[in-house]
Amino acid sequence: MAKNKNLIYIAISLVVFIVLAFLYSTPVFSGKQLFQHDIVQYRGGAKELLDYRADTGNETYWSDSMFGGMPTYQMGSQFKGDIIKKIDSNLNFLPRPVNYLFLLFAGFFFLGMVAVRNWKYALLGATFFGLSTYFYIIIAAGHNGKVNTIEYFAPLLAGIILVYIRKQYIWGFIATTLFMGLQIAANHPQMTYYLFLALGFLFLSELVRAIQKKIPMKHFLISSGIIAASCAIGVGMNSQRIMANSEYIKETVRGKQILTNDSHTSGETGLDKTSILMWSYGKLETLNLFIPRLMGGGSQEPEAKEMMNRVQELIQENVGSQAEMDRISKGFNGVTYWGDQPGTSGPAYQGAVVCFLALLGFFFAWKKYRYWILGASILTVLLAWGSNFMPLSDFFIDYVPFYSKFRAPSSILVVVELLFPLIAIIGIYRFFTDEKLTEEYKKKILIYVSGGTLGFLLILLLFGKSLLGFYTDGEKTYFPPFLLDYLSEERFKLFRIDAIKALLYVAITAAVLFMTMKKKLSQNIALIIIGAVSLFDLWTVNKRYLNDENYVDKVFAENPFQTESSDLLAEKVQGNPNLESIVANVNVNKTLETIAERDKTHYRVFNNILGTFSETNTSYFKSSIGGYHAVKLRRYDDVINEYFQVMDSVKVPNILNLLNAKYWVMGGPDKPQAMPNAKANGNAWFVSDLKFVNTPDEEIKSIGVIDSKKTAVMAAEDKAYFTGKTVQADSTAFINLTKYQPNELEFKSQSKTPQLAVFSEIYYPHGWKMFVDEKEVPYIKADYLLRAVHVPAGTHNIRMVFEPEVIEKGKWLSLLCFGLFIALSAFGIFWTNKNKKKEQLVEKTV
């Protein structure tokens, strides 16, 4: 009866999560969809991939839509036999973002049930975790892969705890394997990596407990083996994805550096330190976990528009010279945020109630949770500081495997956002239910922690203006007193509002705990009050960053690249800043559409209006020189940095010709101009001269100055390719593209002499196969980033096709691992039930 009752409460809790998720996302009831910046960029960049899938029913693992061409492994490609991803899709059955919120709640509820085995505390913890502000910020931005990965943090941890602490080997194996597989399928390795840094502390904690003989060493070894096997199988179920990405990553900005210059060292792997540490959390900024607008919140808070208007008025009233205006501009980075990061969409707010209860949890929780959570929390906070704590950052970048592959260390705070709610509910559960905690001890800790917390808040409220200043060093240097005083006063007001709220929420929570301890409130009423206060706190803060303004009509969400202005569009834009960019880009989009419709051949477009390397409007209509992607191919990124950071009027056109930029879009958003580029090299061409150079640095510098239609720059180590081959000029020779698909191109060539054909296609050493008259031949890199092949004299058909072997190999390995998971799970359940029946039979016999 008790078991059935518990199941009813669990079912009710799941319904509560669905209701909460829908209440937060009410515009979905009217058919509106989220307008997410990164998803808009994805729709443009993935257009060729999606069209190919719709037209053929097949998948292309290469697309020419962005950056001259790149694999689609990080652009939404699908893999045959990818069962684990289908499970993920089925779990995300609700409309976006309801699906994300529901799984955040439900996943932590499972963890809470494992940790404290009480649905009330699990429900409370689920709201603590599921309403963490950072999640709503990344949902608004469109970081869907990131939040999809975070959804599976809590249930994966629950599976590991089932094995290590609950000794539920079979169910722990099933949960750990399943959610490990789902987390990898969500495809955000950075988030998974950060989680496992924290889980290392859990492993060490269990090892220490085994050494101290608090748990049997045999249990620790068995548990560790089960978890290792679970993780291996979970990873194995994603073999296609992992193998393809592992192959790809080696050739990207996350792989080995090729050049040697101020920011690169040939042979070193990963990003340069500047890129890795750019978004580092400030030491003081860490208090944003507790007070959301201590550092002004996000770069664009709701109050920012009014503040900006006042700043402009003050400047008009007080600034009398262009020199003074230029000086102000040097220090200006935003009106609200004044932290150490270049900018931010909002704070990593955890909630005043949650942080307060987490502090108590470090005193009240069982030691088997307390120490590893404390250690993991401290490490992740220190790593989040990034460039503000270089000894630790240097160590991790230089010595900890894979750490240098990731940027934006501030995002590691997701670990704290998982662990604080966990330690909070464990602590409050023991506070209310564990008789081993004496009333004297609870009273002492409660007085010290609540008194210290409230005292700290009072000090900040009374003396924060003078202690913190509320301005940056740059602002102090460049801003006149009238502007500095205004901004610091307004920022202090934002802080004061949130600090007073935090003080009130903590005071209520502390009072509830005292009254419950004194038997003046029941445990259930106390949990309801604490949950309601926390819910109100987080809900209201989150609405600053993800609210009704983030939703737009379905037609605009699914097609943000509008090409015609209309009264309907103008009407919809009013009051919704997310749609302003759609209106602003209409004329540019129309120009791109016109180019694509009038010239249906294969070529690329250089868009110099919207920000070449930070937009995918161009890619939506035609192949682009630029794009928007965090994991670009290394060679292409090198060319961007070498030539497009400083727009040399001679060298940049040479590079654009090399990349077959047949059209340039110039001018402004209101009056864009499409300029045909008659000098573009075309899809392929023959060269009669080979220039061999000794280093990659010479290669990349040469391509900007040579006549690339006649000369190809080759690496000295590739001379062996030409052994027994000659290249001779022939003014009548030609090579033309006869068929184009993103993963297969065909050319027809004719020449009287042997030639080197250079293709305006990006060199990628994995998966591309070259055929001359249907006979596979080796190809070579030319001009630092293009493909080339030797072509004998005569008439030939040349075909290149992208058929990565890792896809097929990975498919069978994925299916094998999934089958192993099902077989082991079924055997484990059968074995467990068999033993239970034996035990029941013995009991009846006795």
From TrEMBL:
<feature type="transmembrane region" description="Helical">
    <location>
        <begin position="499"/>
        <end position="517"/>
    </location>
</feature>
<feature type="transmembrane region" description="Helical">
    <location>
        <begin position="123"/>
        <end position="143"/>
    </location>
</feature>
<dbReference type="InterPro" id="IPR018580">
    <property type="entry name" value="Uncharacterised_YfhO"/>
</dbReference>
<feature type="transmembrane region" description="Helical">
    <location>
        <begin position="445"/>
        <end position="463"/>
    </location>
</feature>
<feature type="transmembrane region" description="Helical">
    <location>
        <begin position="7"/>
        <end position="25"/>
    </location>
</feature>
<protein>
    <submittedName>
        <fullName>Membrane protein YfhO</fullName>
    </submittedName>
</protein>
<feature type="transmembrane region" description="Helical">
    <location>
        <begin position="220"/>
        <end position="237"/>
    </location>
</feature>
<feature type="transmembrane region" description="Helical">
    <location>
        <begin position="812"/>
        <end position="831"/>
    </location>
</feature>
<keyword id="KW-0812">Transmembrane</keyword>
<feature type="transmembrane region" description="Helical">
    <location>
        <begin position="98"/>
        <end position="116"/>
    </location>
</feature>
<feature type="transmembrane region" description="Helical">
    <location>
        <begin position="371"/>
        <end position="390"/>
    </location>
</feature>
<feature type="transmembrane region" description="Helical">
    <location>
        <begin position="410"/>
        <end position="433"/>
    </location>
</feature>
<feature type="transmembrane region" description="Helical">
    <location>
        <begin position="149"/>
        <end position="165"/>
    </location>
</feature>
<feature type="transmembrane region" description="Helical">
    <location>
        <begin position="524"/>
        <end position="541"/>
    </location>
</feature>
<keyword id="KW-1133">Transmembrane helix</keyword>
<feature type="transmembrane region" description="Helical">
    <location>
        <begin position="170"/>
        <end position="186"/>
    </location>
</feature>
<feature type="transmembrane region" description="Helical">
    <location>
        <begin position="192"/>
        <end position="208"/>
    </location>
</feature>
<feature type="transmembrane region" description="Helical">
    <location>
        <begin position="348"/>
        <end position="366"/>
    </location>
</feature>
<keyword id="KW-0472">Membrane</keyword>
